Every structure is written in structure tokens, then in C-alpha cells.
Amino acid sequence: MDKPVLGDYRIEGIVGVGRMGVVYLAIDRITGRAVALKVLRDDVGVDPVYRARFRREGELLAQLNHPHIIPIHGMGEVDGELYMASRLVSSTLRNLILAGPISVDDAMTILTALATALDAAHAVGVVHRDVKPANVLIDPGPDVYLGDFGLARDHEGSQLTLPGQVLGTIDYMAPELLDGERVGAATDIYGLACLACETLTGTVPYVRETDAATMYAHIVEPPPSVSERRPELPAALDAVLAAGMAKDPEDRPASAGALVVDMLGALGRPAPACLAEAA
């Protein structure tokens, strides 16, 4: 039986299912290259808002040419099915966290790469709005890529969001996202601080039984202590992550790079050259 084909791609199997799309392992029939082929799910494919959001994700990824942002190989539409082909990556940060403790060295390598990716996006007015381990793609090395810009907001401020609709992932959502206030680069910095907490300790910042309780914690409760969860970490790191998770966006570090530079400082480590401007 012939394998299904979509445009120039032969589908080999399913990699995963996300909020908007199904990701397939596919082979480019022209180049022979294996790719991750993201296809808009059937249940949302008829919704013009989701179709517009999917197209814009591809456009943003095509514009964001950065070594730590997942590269896109192409996008198109066949018989009403929207698809996007990107680099095929073997795993995610979420999988690494579930597999067991991540060394501090590897954690800081990952966070440094993410900070440069976010700062590059922010420099052209793009806010990711969904920074979380499942959206961090990793190959052995680790080679790190920020992916899934499906909820991103561009410099023109268009959000494709209905009034009162909250988009994102509760465990990493800044208070301003939950309150429906205007989002900006500081929103992603909050998400990066939450992700840093989980990467270093294996647990999300606020472990609560309900989404409502988690939302309440993000809005009013103090940030957790990573040094209590992982005693080998210095107490100075708690203050750095608390600044990254400040309730008021104005009180957070000026950039994602600045947050990671401060983390490295708390750990007694120098900032790498790629974060020199943030130091």
C-alpha cells in the first residue's frame, strides 16, 4: 500500500499532536530530506481564525532566521489542507525533564540558547506567548530550538484572539496574560523563568490541583525557591528567578538574555559571548 502524500512530502508516521496541528515524520520527495510536517488538524481546519494563525506561524518562522529558532523548509496548501515543513528534531525539553534530573551545565546551555532565540524574536517585535518545555526542541548535543510560534504576536499587535480568551499554558503564564492585559517581551521573560525553574528542579513553579489554583498562584503568590527544591543550587538563584517572575512586567529583567546572565552570575559562572550584550 502506498504511503499518503501531501504536496512534495511522503508521510511516514505521526510524531505528535498539538493544539492546532498534527506533526508527521515525512520525506521530501524531491530532496529526500526527512522533515517534521505540521498539518492543521481537521477539527480546527475549517475555522478561519485557526487557518490564519497557522499561516502566520509559518510566515513568522520564515522571517526569524536564528540558529536557535526552528527553521522552516516550506509551507503550502493542498486541497484545503494547510501544511508546514520544518527541521526534524529528535526530542523536546519536556522529554528530558521527564527522563530525570538535568545537570546544571546542560540546563544553562539550554536556557542560554532559548534566551538568544527570544531576544532575537523580541528585537523584531515578535512575542512568543507560549514558552514551555514542550515547545523547546532538542537534538543530542544539546542542539536547542525554540518552536511552535502558533500563539505568537507580531509587531503589528495582531493576536487572532477572541475577547476574553486566554491562550497559552497555565503553568508558565504571566499574570498579565491571565488578567487580559497587554503582553510584551516581559511576558516571555516570565515564561522563561518558569521554564528555568522546571528545568532545574523537575517541577513547575506552582504545583496545584486545579487550573484556577495555578492561575491564582501566578497572580498573587511569591515565586518558589529552587534552592529548597534542589539544595545544590545557591540561594542567590532564588532572587534572580523571583525577579524573572515578578508580578509587574516592569520589575522583570530587561531581556531574556539579562535573566540568564543573572542566573549564571548567581551560579558563579561567566556569561558566554552570545549573551555579552545582555550582561
From TrEMBL:
Q: Name one Pfam family in it.
A: Pkinase
Q: Which InterPro entries is this protein grouped with?
A: Kinase-like_dom_sf, Prot_kinase_dom, Protein_kinase_ATP_BS, Ser/Thr_kinase_AS
Keyword presence, ATP-binding: yes
Q: Which residues participate in ATP binding? A: K38
Q: Does the keyword ATP-binding apply?
A: yes
Keyword field: ATP-binding, Kinase, Nucleotide-binding, Serine/threonine-protein kinase, Transferase
PANTHER family, alphabetized = MITOGEN-ACTIVATED PROTEIN KINASE KINASE KINASE 20-RELATED, SERINE_THREONINE-PROTEIN KINASE NEKL-3
Q: What is this protein called?
A: non-specific serine/threonine protein kinase
